[in-house]
Amino acid sequence: MRELSIGRRGTWLVIGAMLCAAGTWTYAHRVLIPYQTADAKTRGSPRGNFSDLYPSWVGARELLLHGRDPYSAAVTREIQAGYYGRPLDPTRAEEPRDQQRFAYPVYEAFVLAPTVGLPFPLVRIIFFWTMAILTAASVWAWLRVLQWPVSRPAQIAAIIFMLGSVAAMHGLTLQQVSMLAAGLIAFAFLLLSRGYPLPAGVLLALACIKPQLVVLVLLWLGIWTLTDLRRRYGWAASFLLTMGLLLAASEWWLPHWIPRFWQQARAYLDYADAVGVMERLTPPRLGRTLELVALATMLRICWRERRQAANTSAFAFTTVTVLAVTVLLVPKYAPYNQVLLMPAALALLQKRGIFWRQNWASRILFAAAAALVCWPWIACVVLAGLSFIVPLQSVERAWTIPWWTVVGLPVGVAAVMLVYAWRLPFAASLEVGRS
């Protein structure tokens, strides 16, 4: 009878996940995208392929096939012509601020090299499905890193929930390279936890196509490695070797590219209105102060847990805490970066019993984080259903509702992770939770 009950719960869990995913993607195609298209037409804003992959792909194509500088103004105009449908006119006040320049390290071109000879519409399709598969596989990878042996239906439900999240929908719809970086990070830690540090280092180096998403992870691994350098140097050696090769190849292909990349990155922070999560929610000075507090707390936790082996729950929990703080501190708030919150959400769900047995304030904090996570699914399902009943124009006016909690989500998840990581020594608390 107990196995039958578990089987039924698993079935209902999968059905619930499918409902949430269907709601999110129906909302995207029947509410969000039609609203954005109509709004752009009303305001006279240019609208082309609107693919975040396009600037990277054009830059890689022009560099590798034609030897052109991807940071040049000429390549930027070509990118704008595809992304917006025409080059931007700086004399027009109503033009979009985001200039869509190639603002990536040159070595990103080597990752995209297999696609540069293909037509971009085909590249978009390939990238979409490859990233969808990689994102699904990363859920499987994190469950193993966290050492959570859930049932097969629960694994399937977790994958569907992830693919049906607003973050994944946003990243896949835009073909965001962050999805690739997040998948590489997941499998790097899976390999590290299974005793394969050399390929783990290679994957972490490739994930540096999005340096801002990897820097805190590398800082944590640096602290961990220096604690026992003789036994843990393997991943660092392969990482440094791979990065050295990527940087050398980049310099050979485009000499003196680093100053140009740095200039483009600084310009990007301006024209893309790059503001972190805390600075969106609070006055800038207070936001920066809270960011420093979060960073200091994370570093204290990393220092305390630096002796943990890579195959322990303590190491895994510290890692997903670092990823949650990464989303909190990354210079530009973007919903698609929240795919990096997925392992933290899994960890919180895994250890929910430990968290819930604390005082009432802890339960309120945990419940608030859970509400922030669940709200976008609820709102998307409701709006998707209404789109078949109510006139679409009326539903489109409510397109922002699923996004109400998106800015606060990194704050809620990171706060819960940091609070419990600070208060409870992992080596003791997590083992109790597993028993």
Question: What's this model, at a glance?
Answer:
By secondary structure, this protein is mainly α. The chain is 72% helix and 0% strand.
Brief descriptors of the model:
mainly alpha
Along the chain, the helix and strand elements come as HHHHHHHHHHHHHHHHHHHHH
Global outline: globular
Fraction of residues in H or I helices = over 70%
Extract low-pLDDT stretches: 1-6, 426-435
Structural class: mainly alpha
Percent strand: under 5%
Extended strand count: 0
Task: Kindly give the count of domains.
Answer: 1
Continuous helix count: 21
Q: Ends: how far apart?
A: 23 Å
Largest sheet: none
- Mean pLDDT over the full residue set: 90
Over the alpha carbons, how many angstroms does the gyration radius reach?
22 Å
Topology:
Layout: H1 2-43, H2 53-66, H3 73-83, H4 108-111, H5 120-145, H6 152-163, H7 166-174, H8 178-193, H9 197-206, H10 211-227, H11 229-253, H12 257-271, H13 277-281, H14 284-304, H15 313-329, H16 342-350, H17 352-356, H18 360-386, H19 392-396, H20 409-423, H21 426-434
Helix pairs in contact: 1-6, 1-18, 2-3, 5-6, 5-8, 8-9, 9-11, 10-11, 10-15, 14-15, 14-20, 15-20, 15-21, 18-20
